[in-house]
Specification:
It holds the Pfam family BON. With 103 residues, this protein is of the alpha+beta class. Helices cover 48% and strands 20% of the residues. The protein has a three-stranded mixed sheet.
Amino acid sequence: MNFAERFMRFLCGFALLALVACAPTPQREGTGEYIDDTIITGKVKAALVADPDLKASEIQVETFKGTVQLSGFVQADHIPRALSLVRRIDGVKDVKNDMVPKR
C-alpha cells in the first residue's frame, strides 16, 4: 500500500469519525437541529413580543428538538394565551408549560 492509499484511508476514517461525533443523541442535538431550534426560539420570542396583551419579558423560552419550554412568573390569564400562541408557530412540535401564575 503506497502513501496515497494510506492517506486516503486516513481521510475516509477521519471523515467517518467526524460524522459520528456530530450525530444527535437523545440528550444532544445535531448541528441542524440546533439551528432549527434557534430559529424556532426566535419565532416564539417575536410572537410573544408582538402580542400586545402579553409581557414577553416575563416569559423565558428554550427549545430542544422542536419542543418549546415556556417558564417564568406571569399573570394567570396570560398562560393559556401564550401556550395557544406558541402552538401555532411553524416548527413547534410540542409546548412544555413551566410558567407559574403570579399571586
